[in-house]
Amino acid sequence: MLIAAIIAICIVLLVLAFLLPRLSRHPQRGVDTVLGAGQKGAGAAPGKLGHWLQKPFRSSRKATNRSAAAGRQGRGKLPL
């Protein structure tokens, strides 16, 4: 279920960044903040466990940021 939610967020950010590049920054930062808080909380676990628990949040943050960047980059390549 969590994977489907991250995929949906990536698609929404991609479309939003393509249609409204400047206005897409705020939702991207919101998603980044939420996932960052989860990553920070998971990192509080001791030792290697904390590192392992952070990984899903870190990969999700990377995916959402790449998705929004790709939308803005695609919009920038339009001949308009």
Structural class: mainly alpha
In DSSP terms, counting alpha (H) and pi (I) runs of 4 or more, how many helices?
3
The biggest beta sheet, please?
A: none
Give unreliable regions as ranges. none
The residue fraction in helices comes out at over 70%
Report how far apart the termini are: 39 Å
Number of strands: 0
Silhouette? elongated
Q: Could you tell me the mean pLDDT?
A: 94
H-E order: HHH
The rounded Rg comes to: 14 Å
Question: In percent, how much strand structure appears in the residues?
Answer: under 5%
Model description:
By secondary structure, the protein is mostly helical. Helix content is about 80%, strand content about 0%. It is built from three helices and no strands. The protein has helices at about 1-20, 25-40, 45-75. Helix 1 packs parallel to helix 3 (about 45-75).
Spell out the blueprint of helices and strands.
Layout: H1 2-19, H2 25-42, H3 47-76
Helix pairs in contact: 1-3, 2-3
Short précis:
Residues 56-80 are annotated as: Disordered. This protein has 80 residues and is mainly alpha-helical.
